Amino acid sequence: MADLDNSNLPRTIGRYQVLRLLGSGAMGSVVLAEDPRIKRKVAIKLMKLDAANTEADRHEHLLRFQREAEISGLLNHPGIVAIYDVGEEEGYGPFLAMEFVPGKPLDGLVKEAGTLSNKEKLRIAAGLADALDHAHAKGIVHRDVKPGNVMVGEDGRPKLMDFGIAKREDASLTQTGTFLGTPSYASPEQIREGTVDSRSDIFSFGVLIFELMSGQSPFPGSSINTILYRIVNEPPAEVEPPAVGILPDGWHRVFDKVLAKRPEDRHTTATAFVRELLDAVVDLGKEDRRELLALLKANGDSPIPEIRSTSFDETMVVARPEPRSSGRIWLAVAAVAALAVGGWFLFRGPKAVRLPIDTQPTGAKVFVNDLAVGTTPMNQPLQAGDTLRLELKGFQPLTHAFKPGEALPVFPLEPVFSEETIDSTPAGASVVLDEKPLEGVTPLKVRWNQGQPHRLTLIKEKLGYASDFAPGEIPAGRVFELKEGTTAEARQEPPLDPTAPGALKLAGAFGVRVRVDGKDLGDLAPGGQLSLPPGPHKVELASSKHYFRETRTLSVTAGQTAPLNLPALATLTVETFPGTGKVLVDGQDTGLESDGSSLKLAEGRHTITVRGPRGSKNETVDLRGDKGLRFPL
Fold this sequence. Notes:
Blueprint: E1 12-13, E2 16-25, E3 28-35, E4 40-47, H1 55-72, E5 83-89, E6 93-99, E7 103-105, H2 106-111, H3 118-137, E8 140-141, E9 150-153, E10 158-160, H4 188-192, H5 198-214, H6 224-233, H7 248-258, H8 270-280, H9 286-294, E11 316-317, H10 327-348, E12 353-360, E13 365-368, E14 371-375, E15 378-382, E16 387-391, E17 398-401, E18 410-412, E19 417-425, E20 430-433, E21 436-441, E22 444-449, E23 454-460, E24 463-469, E25 479-481, E26 483-484, H11 486-491, E27 502-507, E28 512-516, E29 519-524, E30 529-532, E31 535-543, E32 548-556, E33 561-565, E34 569-577, E35 582-585, E36 588-593, E37 595-602, E38 604-612, E39 615-623, E40 627-632
Parallel strand pairs: 12-18, 19-25, 27-33, 34-40
Antiparallel strand pairs: 1-2, 2-3, 3-4, 4-6, 5-6, 7-9, 8-11, 9-10, 12-15, 13-14, 13-16, 16-17, 19-22, 20-21, 20-23, 23-24, 24-26, 27-30, 28-29, 28-31, 31-32, 34-37, 35-36, 35-38, 38-39
């Protein structure tokens, strides 16, 4: 077949009326056509058989073409381009008639990434993740996941394709005969051994999303050799800042995992990766987050069985072995397996349903069956019998047993009230709580609402003391030392202008990412200050490095600086026996083994999970100082 252009197009291919050329590459061409029977536009892929150098190459190309048609019968997903028809046209060879997607190729949009909002980018990521997991669940490995194989429709929805029609002469060019797939998006094991499974696709998908979110490649290079070396040996490139609206610690945690050199260290599914990426994004509203999570099916976190192949197709399916002479034995085994699987589904009960979980106030830690899964508001798969526990500092824990068909309410959390003794040295000081004088002097018993912030001021003649308490913080029997001049300095009488800004000063041993009233204000180092307008503010603090996340409601007074207190850091040592496993804290992979390794955590309640080759075990600890954790695995 000669190279096609708009001057030598056939009038028809099969029953389809050819309209125009869409693109041409080394292995064939794609034309836009119309099915006269139903007036549907289709894209027709024609194979250029004369591009094959040998008869063996010709045969291999025909097999690939045929397999692509066969695969379409296995896939039925709105995020995957559908193949409608297959045939052969005299003078042009075999052809595939497939879904025509009006829109833009993703590789073009990646170059214009600055024009897309985070919501638009994450919508593309969520749609592709669900499509990729659908293919993996059908036993299909794409092997060439890259922006050039994705079309984004006019409605903003992505479509995964299995062909590239544009000639590429840069580092992203597929080198037919010398390299299978695209070097810039290949996984380390694909480069080293030439073998792939679903986790290789997930690595390639991670590279694609890294580029989409940041506009840069995680493994840049001016030559293929440089790119391949970096993929196999070097961590992803540093991007500062990674992307607007994404916590740097979260960015590194998520992409270090999805781009791990060892397949077993990566996310088990593409949707699990995107869901963890969503947790690191801080500039999404509640409704936007729920909409994106709804695109990820409830079973997206289920691990896909390992798929092995030695096929050298760009897209492949693992064929089932033909039964041999021992067919009856295998049929009996299959029958027993079917009964076992059927029984598992019978007694397992209903499938998990993804539901929104929210509290008033927000920011509560969510535990499902004693495993930490995130903070409110969030979406979480639940099934009958699951026990939901919600914990927020300063509020009573709430436990709820999930029932099938139930719609979860916004759970109101009840504050903890305690009787606290306010004492001072010297004693006999007047007490002002939340700018209201109390009757009596120290030592004085007061009713303390742990669910709200408090400002405590003690005054005795020229001596004084002042401090702010966050929700959940209590005097706890402390005797406050009064000092000369402290009162005037700490209380800082409000200025004449009641609209003058106040400030919050970070007091703690580690820095945090700060979000105030839904707006990301970036990283705040110890001793750093935030200038805020007077009044109440919702302050969200996070440090993925020290596994700390908390939401507080604080009141800022005009012209005053209030401390923003953080919990202390403690060292946790984890050791299991007789074997070791991977250590996770609150569901986050620490990258450590349970061999006596230590890590620094923010004091508070944490769920420690150790996953070993024979199973996993959870331990919940209330960390108050250094602690050693040792248990059998």
